Amino acid sequence: MPDPAEERARAPHSPRIIPTDIPHSAFDQNALRVVSRLQREGNEAYLVGGCVRDLLLGRRPKDYDVATSATPRGVKSLFFNGRIIGRRFKLVHVRYGEQVIETATFRSAPERGEAEGDDLLIVEDNNWGTAQEDAQRRDFTINALFLDPYRREILDYVGGLEDLEAGVLRTIGDPYVRMAEDPVRILRAIKFATRLGFRIDEATWDAMVEHSDDLARSAKPRVMEEILRLLRSGTALGALRMMRKCGVLRVMLPQLDLHVGAHDSADPQAHDRADSVWRLLEALDSYVHEKHVPATATCVAALFLRMIERDAALDPRTHAGDIGGRELLELASRRIDAFAVEYRLAKRDGYKAARAIALQRNFTQTPTKRFSPLLFARDQDFPEALELFRLRCSAWGQGWDVYEAWLERAAEARAAPPEALEVERQHKRRRGRRRGSRSKTPRGGAEETSLDA
Length: 453
Description:
- This protein has 453 residues and is of the alpha+beta class.
- It has 3 domains: 1-166, Beta Polymerase, domain 2 (2-Layer Sandwich); 171-267, Hydrophobic Seed Protein; 295-452, no CATH class.
- It is built from 22 helices and 10 strands.
- An 8-stranded mixed beta sheet has the order 1-8-7-2-3-6-5-4. A two-stranded parallel sheet has the order 9-10.
- The N and C termini lie far apart (75 Å).
- The relative contact order is 0.06.
């Protein structure tokens, strides 16, 4: 039997076509509608990318992408519910209620001007091409498979099926060129390798290490999006460890990289610091595996919690016994604000992350004249703070009874009549007047009851 790779070498424009037995019920009906409409109008159209990969692995795709020979304007003209988006990479979102079928035109290699020199970073990618050219433009072989759901055929131009069966993650073409073109592919490689349990091809790994510094040049919102995807993937622990090993953590999160120390460090303190971070990420993964989607603020807080707790432990005010909630919020904001500005994280999410950390001590606080559990449970930042407290309980293996008690308190607070809340607020105002300026409301409009404790 001839080798598929040799066949492609002899006929580079001819894909390997493989029949598939994926049942019709496995396909998303809205994605089928998009493919069908495009094909009826004389266009090539296929399911492509992660949805094909996941279907072949027996997984349920999170979303469906379509690749077609039709231009974005051509696609838009066929779907009243379609909307052209993007500048660097134009495509069409075809919306069915809350679901979006992302529909992209086949791409060819981007043209480069003489002024670009040796810089391979792609800043625009809107050169239309063929299905074969589009497959060659994709990042990894396992993501470049085309599926015709009506003919029940897989089109493989790049050897993706062999890599999928072998559990290997490999770039298409020269890995050094592909990582230089788009350094965010380093994060995508880490995401796919950890989520699918695949081995990264040696040349691909070497290119990831070589180009890790280039991530500093990538669009910050894209990098932030990939960070959040990694943290919500259910494999955050493995992803962060891999980021540290290939040098990405040092570039993207230098504070955290310094906190956990080198991966081969013999320093026992660095080992203990790293272990505490890993345990928290492991708890985050367990939370995701239980079908929860952690809030953005919780994800960010999980990254910074141990560093900020260490800042607090080393702060002179701690030894003097006068560090309180406001001071802890100040320490947390100092760390998180710089990160939020650099990666274009919404100010609201950054502040919520800092406040979630500052509020942790309140979960073990007993009711006093200065602290109302009812108002704390009604605080606008309470959900993220409670979510972070759950992760801490899971990571350290203690405090679960306290967490469950707060779940009950939160339910009681939601059901509390308005007059009961008003009584608590009036008590707070009277105590606030006696304490003077301590009754002011902090930025973000949140009740400061919990930070006074």
